[in-house]
Design a protein that fits this description.
Length: 478
C-alpha cells in the first residue's frame, strides 16, 4: 500500500498567525508536497488512487513544529504551532472552510440585522465539552466577555471592537448587540475559540493555557511546552469522531532534522518552514509532489517604536531603504519570495499594490538611507556607529531560539544596517519570552512571519494604539 505524507514548506497560508507588522518585509512562496513512502518488503503494490480519495480510520498524525508551544488558550493562537493544536481542541461559532468561506461551526445558523448592529446565533444542541458538560450560550457569553475585558489584558481584545451587550435569551441563542458596525465581526470574534466557562472561571487563564477543555475534535492528553503536545480523538464530538486517533506535535527547531524526518517517514508534516533548498530539492524527488503557491504571510522585523533610537520614523524609513530585500530573496530564498511592499500578502484578494503605483514603496537606496539618518540628527562617529546627543544608534533584534530558517535574514539585515551606521545586535530567546517582551515593551526588535488572523484582513489588533497585538507600540493620532 502506498502511504501519503504531507509537507508544509517555507510558508503556507495560516489563518491564525497574529504577528505584528514591522520594519522590513518579504512575502514568501508556499511549498506544499505529498511524499509517497516506499511500501514494506513483500507488500502488494498500490492500485489506483483509492488511498488518496478514501481515507482510512486510525493511526497517529505526527507533526513537527519549529518552536515551543507557549500555551493552548484562545489567547495563544498567534504562532501557527500553537494555533494548530488550539483549533484541534476548540471550536468557534464560525470558521472558514477550505475555500476560505465563513461557515457555521458551533452555530447552527445565524442572522445579521439589516443595520449590521445585531447578530443572532442559534447554537447546535447536544454539543459536549471534553469533560462531558453541555455547551450552551453561557459559554459563548463568558468567552467573549472575558477576552474583550481590558482588565484581562488579552491580545484578542480588539477582535471584539464595537460589541455592546451580549444577551442569552435561552441556552441555545446568543444575541450580539453592536454599538457600531464592524465589517470584520464574523471573521474576528466569530472565529474566537469557545472555552468551558465554569472550568475556565474556576482555574483561571494561566492554568487554562496548560490544560484547556474545549468542544473540539481532539482532547488534550499531554502537554510539555518545549517538547510535545499530544491530543486524542474526542469520541463524542458533535460532528462525529475524527478518523485520526491521535495527533502528536513535537518541537524540533532545526529544519534539516524535520526534513530528514519527512524523508524517513517519522513525520507527516513539518508544519512550518523547511530550508528553501530542501523544499526545492524535494520538488525534484519523484516521491514528492510539490505545489508552489503565493502566501498571505509577510516576513518582517517588528521595531519597538517607543525605543528612543527607533522612535523617529526617519530612522525606520532609513532601515527600509538600507535593506536590499531582493538580494535576500535571491541569495537566501533561491528566488522563492517577492518583496513585500504592503502589510498584505499577495494571497489576499485585497492585495492590489501592483495596480496602485501611488502606494509608497521603500526601494533599496543606501544614499537615501544615509540622508534620512543625517536629517534625523544621527551623525556617523569614528567607530562606524551613528550617535545623537551622546547616545549610540544601537538596539538588539531577538530571534527565536533555534530558528535557523529565518536567522540568516537577521544576519543579512545586521550587516546592511551596519553599512549605514546602525548597530543591530543579535540575540536568541524562546518564543514565549519574545512575545512577553513585545507585549511589555522590553524587546527592541524581533523577526517573525505575520499575516492577518482571518480571511477578511483587519489590522485593528496590530495597528490601533490600543491594539492587543500592537507589539511595535505604534501610535498615530489620525
Amino acid at each position: 500500500m502506498t502511504k501519503k505524507r504531507n509537507l508544509r514548506g517555507p510558508e503556507q497560508l495560516s489563518r491564525r498567525q497574529f504577528l505584528q507588522i514591522g520594519g522590513a518585509g518579504l512575502s514568501a512562496a508556499a511549498f506544499m508536497a505529498a511524499c509517497a513512502v516506499p511500501a514494506e518488503p513483500g507488500a502488494a503494490p498500490a492500485t489506483g488512487d483509492s488511498t488518496a480519495s478514501e481515507p482510512t480510520s486510525g493511526g497517529t498524525l505526527h507533526l513537527m513544529g519549529h518552536q515551543e508551544v507557549a500555551g493552548l488558550s484562545p489567547d495563544d493562537t498567534g504562532p501557527s504551532v500553537q494555533a494548530t493544536m488550539i483549533l484541534a481542541i476548540h471550536n468557534s461559532l464560525l470558521m472558514a472552510d477550505k475555500d476560505l468561506v465563513t461557515q457555521p461551526q458551533l452555530a447552527e445558523s445565524y442572522e445579521v440585522a439589516e443595520d449590521g448592529l445585531t447578530y443572532t446565533f442559534t447554537l447546535h444542541q447536544g454539543v459536549k465539552f471534553h469533560d462531558g458538560k453541555e455547551f450552551t450560550a453561557a459559554d459563548v457569553k463568558y468567552t467573549y466577555d472575558y477576552y474583550r475585558d481590558p482588565e484581562n489584558a488579552s491580545t484578542l481584545v480588539n477582535n471584539f471592537l464595537g460589541i455592546g451587550a451580549i444577551e442569552t435569551p435561552d441556552d441555545y441563542t446568543v444575541v450580539i448587540n453592536m454599538e457600531q458596525v464592524n465589517a470584520a465581526s464574523l471573521t474576528t470574534w466569530g472565529e474566537t475559540p469557545i472555552v468551558q466557562s465554569e472550568y475556565h472561571a474556576e482555574v483561571g487563564e494561566e492554568a487554562y493555557r496548560n490544560a484547556p477543555i474545549g468542544t473540539g475534535a481532539f482532547k488534550l492528553v499531554e502537554f510539555n511546552p518545549a517538547e510535545v503536545v499530544l491530543v486524542e480523538a474526542f469520541d463524542d464530538h458533535f460532528r462525529g469522531r475524527p478518523k485520526i486517533d491521535m495527533i502528536r506535535q513535537e518541537v524540533v527547531p532545526e529544519p534539516s532534522v524535520r526534513t530528514i524526518a519527512l524523508e524517513t517517514g517519522d513525520a507527516d508534516s513539518a508544519l512550518w518552514p523547511l530550508l528553501v533548498e530542501d523544499s526545492l530539492r524535494l520538488a525534484e524527488d519523484p516521491n514528492f509532489t510539490v505545489i508552489k503557491t503565493s502566501t498571505a504571510g509577510v516576513k518582517h522585523i517588528p521595531l519597538n517604536n517607543k525605543l528612543p533610537q527607533l522612535s523617529d520614523k526617519r530612522v525606520r524609513q532609513a532601515m527600509m531603504h538600507a535593506l536590499d530585500r531582493q538580494r535576500i530573496i535571491d541569495d537566501l530564498w533561491n528566488g522563492a519570495a517577492t518583496v513585500a511592499n504592503s502589510n498584505l500578502g499577495p494571497k489576499f484578494a485585497f492585495y492590489s499594490l501592483d495596480q496602485d503605483p501611488s502606494l509608497k514603496r521603500y526601494d533599496y537606496d543606501v544614499d537615501k538611507a544615509n540622508a534620512l539618518l543625517e536629517e534625523a540628527g544621527w551623525v556617523m562617529s569614528d567607530d562606524g556607529v551613528r550617535e545623537k546627543d551622546g547616545a549610540k544608534l544601537t538596539f538588539t533584534c531577538t530571534t527565536i531560539t533555534g530558528d535557523s530558517a529565518r536567522r540568516p535574514i537577521a544576519e543579512f539585515a545586521q550587516q546592511a544596517f551596519k553599512e549605514v551606521g546602525i548597530d543591530m545586535q543579535l540575540a536568541e530567546s524562546p518564543i514565549s519570552a519574545i512575545l512577553e517582551g513585545l507585549t511589555n515593551g522590553t524587546v527592541d526588535a524581533s523577526l517573525f512571519n505575520w499575516t492577518y488572523g482571518s480571511v477578511d484582513p483587519d489590522p485593528s489588533s496590530t495597528l490601533r494604539s490600543d491594539g492587543g497585538q500592537n507589539w511595535n507600540s505604534f501610535e498615530n493620532a489620525r
